[in-house]
Amino acid sequence: MAKVKTTLSLDEVLMRQVRVRAARAGTSQSEMLERALREGLGILDRLRAKANLDEEEAVRLATEVVHEVRAGRDLDRAP
Questions:
Q1: CA distance linking residue 36 with residue 8, whole number of Å
Q2: Concatenated DSSP letters for 11-74?
Q3: Looking at residue 18, what is its pLDDT?
Q4: For the chain, which residues score pLDDT lower than 70?
Q5: Closest listed residue to residue 17, CA positions, set 43, 36, 4
Q6: Model confidence over 41-62: pLDDT tens digits?
Q7: Packing angle between helix 29-51 and helix 12-25, nearest 10 degrees?
């Protein structure tokens, strides 16, 4: 698959988490970000399909779930 070079502005804490996870997984930061985006978009698609939600509602629900997960564990220490 062809790759596109992209510049993003990300929260520094989030980028630190990406660096840590990439290092632990033995992969690049780009690959880690690509995996996270694919997973997140897949979650949105599944939410929309199962709950018959529009895009905005699916994003709201997914964001809520992410915040709940983050509140329950330290992502920097996750395997």
A1: 14
A2: -HHHHHHHHHHHHHHTS-HHHHHHHHHHHHHHHHHHHHHHHT--HHHHHHHHHHHHHHHHHHS-
A3: 93
A4: 73-79
A5: 36
A6: 888 778 777 777 788 887 888 7
A7: 100
